[in-house]
Design brief:
The structure holds 2 protein chains of 2 kinds. By secondary structure, chain A is mainly beta. Chain A has helices spanning about 1-20, 95-100, and strands spanning about 35-45, 50-55, 65-70, 70, 75-85, 95, 105-115, 115-120, 135-140, 145-155, 175-185. In chain A, strands 1, 2, 3, 5, 6, 8 and 9 form a 7-stranded antiparallel β-sheet that branches. A 4-stranded mixed β-sheet of chain A has the order 4-11-10-7, with no helix packed on it. In chain A, a hairpin with a 6-residue loop joins strand 5 and strand 6. The longest helix of chain A has 18 residues, at about 1-20. By secondary structure, chain B is mainly β. Chain B has 5 helices and 44 strands. In chain B, strand 4 and strand 5 (about 55) form a beta hairpin. Classes of the chains: A mainly beta, B mainly beta. Chains A and B meet through helix 1, helix 2 and strand 11 of A and strand 26, strand 27, strand 28, strand 29 and strand 32 of B.
Chain lengths: ~180, ~775
Amino acid sequence: MKSFKYLYIPLLSLFIALSSCEKDPQIPNEEELITTVTYTLTPVTGGDPVIFSFRDLDGDGGQNPVIVEGRLKANTVYNAVIGLYNESVSPVDTITNEVSEEALEHQFFYTFSDVNISFIYTDHDSENHPIGIMTKVTTGEPSEGMVTIILRHLPDKFASGVSDGDITNAGGESDIEVSFLVIAE
Amino acid sequence: MTSKRFLMIAMGVMLAHFVIGQHCTIQISGQVLDRATREPLEYTTVSIQETNQSVLADSAGAYVLDGLCPGDYHLRVFHLGCPPGEYFLSLRKDTMLTILLDHHGELLREVVVEGKPNSFQESQNQQTITSSMIRDQAGQSLADMTENIAGVRTIRNGSGITKPVIHGLYGNRVAIINNGLLQAGQQWGADHAPEIDPNSVTVITVVKGSDAIEYGSQALGGALLVEAGPIKRDPHLHGTFGYAYETNGRGHTLTGMANRSYKTIDWRLTGTWKKAGDHHTPDYFLTNTGASELNGSLQLVFRPTEKVQHQVYYSLFTSTLGIFAGSHISNLTDLEEAIGREEPFNINDYFSYDINPPKQEVSHHLLKYSGKKFVDENIFLEWTYGLQADHRQEFDVRRGNRSDIPALDLQLWSNNFQLKYINDKSRVRYKAGVQATITDNSNDYDTGILPLIPDYLESVTGLYSLFQYPTGKFVLEAGARYDLQLLKAWPITLTLPREIVVMEHVFNDYAFSAGAVFKATNDDETRLQLVAARRSPEANELYSNGLHQGVAGIEEGNWLLQPEVSFKSILTQALAFPDLMHVELSVYSHLVYDYIYLKPDDELRLTIRGAFPVYKYTQQDAWIRGADIVLISDFSHHLEWNAKFSWVRGTTLEDGKDLSLMPPAYVSSSLAWAFHDSPVWKGSRIAVGAEYTTMQEYWDPDNELLAPPSDYFLLGIRFNTGIKLGSRIFYAGVAIENLLNIRYRDYLNRLRYYADEQGINARFNLRYEF
């Protein structure tokens, strides 16, 4: 089996050659990434807006997200607007524009729990179903609870309750799901 | 007896002994034997196609055909319950032929000398699926076919994506050897099916034991060998055309094969086209579970002299597979919502062949050149070069018209060199070889998504040797292997700013095996095998990073992983009770130190898309043990009964926690009736099969999102026949699966969270052989 020796030498050198091999990988341009959600509530009667934000600049994994929460006034009506951004690119990309362009395929859902707050949709897609980028939020007596904001991609907007903001029968895939502590005082 | 000749045929080997003869008075005589048991097969019809002569073998399996002129003849052999066999014979003198038929396909091991050296594997723990079984199941996937073997189950993602699980292990621990080359695809993914067309294959072998030595560290849990197989040495053009239709999914499969042998050249060509649409459960359509495939292969064999053989083989596999629309969820909340539903989300109430994102598009090229130089009939040197290119694209539903851009786009190249020397003649038989593989995996960065596994280069150089020593009633064997593995990976950081890091790993893998076969009598054989092996972590275990949409989990590699060390022992007892029963009992124990597996983190990870469980690659000592039992009746030629039972359990050694995705205990049985041949109907057989899968009671609530589904019982029926019209034979078959249209879910199917399994399905199969 002399031939083995002769073959093993080139195989070994091949192995050594590999360790000096280089590849030239590139970092993908994560243009679809959403790093930031802002939820801005401005009193209809005027005044300073209250801003909630969820910021995770490096995406899933890496550093933990930074969450900023605000305080609302009791018995007040707010105009609320959602902002989605990709802050990992420069200039910052406003993803909310993509959502409004594909309004038929998207809907935001708001779930307020343990807190005296209600909302109504104030925007509509071309089939007159809500999108949920803009809403009107009304606070009641002072209370404290949570709000969960979900953006569904490809929900069934015709399913029962969905256009009223009930997520139960919506289906689709969650592109955004963030929760904030809300205090109405 | 002046000369001996070997004729390679698909179903067995005929030994032809030539005696002196005269013009048109030549005689063919011999015996028909069961290949597995070597018992005579009585009442077998042996006929000559050219002269329409036909005789019935007697109770000892003996037959005589006489009054033949010298010339080329095609012999056809029919025996009840066996697939009909066709053999080519160039007749010059009186000839004695021993015909071996696969009467007990289930029992078949590679025990029989295939003419040319192959007897080395005599004591291996392996089972084979033959070409007739493959053709009768046309339209099914490779992994589905292997489920016929005890101890083998499949892990799946819906109906189209299946991969084999051998003795509880799969993926990186089951080597798939495609025509002698380690299949270089993305085998790590539980939702990645092997990129192989079963129609291009004539033999599928499942190896559970000590063959790890020859196939490298990936064969730790076993190996699946698929072979195009030798081409019949028949100077006429032969082949098959087949069509199969299945009602569930309205799937059409067209298969074709042609081969011909010349004096120094043989060729074979195969092709497959497959198209299926949405499958359905007893209650609803599984929207977007269609599949399409287009495959082909070409095999050329050159025999410039009797002692030298060159072979070129090329195969192409392309497929598009839909992923069930109802499994398209994002985070844990979505998943929990989907689990509780009566009917899945996103399904249509109509059938469609459309395949939309999420879907997979895969192509796999394999090109191989190999040469063999025979020193002697049982001593040869074989050299091989193989090139594989695997392209995998996975599409997701994405925002902003990006659904046409793959979310994962991997291109893998693999170069393989091998040299093997086999000596089957010396007192101690041995086999030795060197192998070198270089793998280059690249991501396409236009996906706009951080890759699930990074770019990497990997080289594995290995040396192995196996020895076998037959002495008295024993066959003793031993083997050793060494691999040097170098991995260089370019992962991207998870933190900002994104950077590419260069990582290098050097691993040394070893394997040792020892075994003994004790054949007390012809009817009593005991086999013991011990394998110790070390497997180094693969790129996905070290560096995978990303979200698995279908299971709402983030998967994270661990670059500090060390090789796992496994000790497997298998004890098998085969007993034959002549004219009553064959029994094979196998028990195994598999200790894996530093077993690499995915372990869920205690805390959920908060992302902008909600909370996700995080699964991290971890190492812990594990113990996998199990038993397989096979019973096959031998009391009647007409009535056949068989039963199989498999049980396996895997736990961690330290805290005794159950490993996930271990197949639940399973028992199956089938009862068949073989009809007598008539002038028109040949080899007709009807079989009723039942299988019962228990609920997986061994599971760890920390490891599972959902309790395993309950047990289920399935009933099926199958009828196969050959129809002889003139000198032509058509083969036809009908098989009905899930006959009772049972609603059930399977623990090993990833879709169990969302939807039921397929309901009733009828497969029709028509084939013409020429």
